[in-house]
Design a protein that fits this description.
By secondary structure, the chain is an alpha+beta fold. The chain is built from seven helices and ten strands. A six-stranded antiparallel beta sheet has the order 1-2-3-6-7-8, with no helix packed on it. Helix 4 runs antiparallel to helix 5, helix 5 runs antiparallel to helix 6 and helix 6 runs antiparallel to helix 7. The chain is elongated, with a radius of gyration of 31 Å.
Length: 280
């Protein structure tokens, strides 16, 4: 018994129990790269193999063959908005980046299925969201570790750089900064939206603040054609709390008609009950 306890003490002291795990560095460590281009968030997740004395392009990575563009799981890029690559629109989302290296040019492919480990067992051309050919630039020095960069940042574009050994290739992509900025400017300059007025009025009403101000906001929220029935419901409740039962009933009847048209049983029931109560 004493020998067993002594052995256990030794194992625990040196971290050699069954639950212990040996940690070693990964030969191709993972990296997550985040960049805002204009108003668009772009993220790249990839693994970074090293040269380790090997010849890379034309040997370890053969010319003319599809390459995973890194190591381990797919190299992935995620766009928060629709972007454009070589005139082709890429919908916002995540794509695997595959490449076909050549001596003078590379093909760079954005593939809609991004959860492979390496290249797909069966290539599906319908999943090619965009592809482009880019020129190879020979660098005057060698880059030991496979590297992806964001270069030539501008308000409406950037270049996705790929570097390894003595090779650099860059893929330009364009982001919808002008459209997003223009929309933002127009929205702000146009003033609060109907929903902004509705949210403000709802807060003032539920928190029992200035009901006259809440009603003024609801009048603006419902000023257009066919205001939502839930806007009208809130307005009727504010009118009732201000003592305007006649106005509340008229507004609730409009909300009721809208709710019936939308087959919203909850609002139909609530409006009918309120109208009956206010008519007494």
């Amino acid at each position: 018994m004493l020998k067993k306890l002594s052995l256990l003490f030794v194992l625990v002291s040196f971290g050699l129990t069954a639950n212990a795990q040996i940690k070693t560095p990964q030969p191709s460590p993972a990296q997550k790269l985040e960049q805002v281009v204009g108003l668009t968030d772009v993220t790249v997740e990839y693994s970074r193999p090293g040269m380790r004395g090997r010849t890379i392009f034309g040997d370890l990575v053969p010319y003319g063959q599809t390459w995973r563009t890194g190591a381990n799981a797919n190299t992935k890029i995620t766009f928060s908005d629709n972007v454009t690559v070589d005139g082709k629109e890429l919908k916002k989302g995540t794509y695997a980046i595959f490449t076909i290296p050549g001596e003078k040019t590379w093909e760079v492919i954005f593939y809609s299925e991004s959860n492979n480990w390496g290249t797909p067992q069966k290539w599906d051309e319908t999943k090619v969201a965009a592809k482009t050919a880019v020129e190879v630039y020979e660098m005057p020095m060698k880059v030991e570790t496979f590297t992806i960069t964001f270069d030539d940042l501008a308000t409406g574009s950037a270049v996705l750089g790929i570097l390894w050994e003595n090779v650099y290739v860059g893929v330009k992509f364009e982001v919808p900064t002008d459209a997003l900025t223009t929309k933002s400017i127009e929205s702000v300059m146009a003033g609060p939206s109907g929903n902004d007025y509705f949210q403000a009025a709802t807060y003032y009403h539920t928190e029992k603040k200035d009901l006259k101000q809440a009603l003024a906001w609801m009048q603006k929220a419902t000023a257009g054609e066919n205001p939502p029935f839930w806007y009208l419901r809130r307005m009727s409740l504010i009118q009732a709390d201000l003592g305007d039962k006649k106005g509340a009933i008229a507004t609730a009847q409009k909300s009721l008609a809208g709710a019936e048209k939308a087959n919203n049983a909850d609002y139909v029931k609530m409006n009918k009950e309120s109208i009956a109560a206010w008519q007494k």
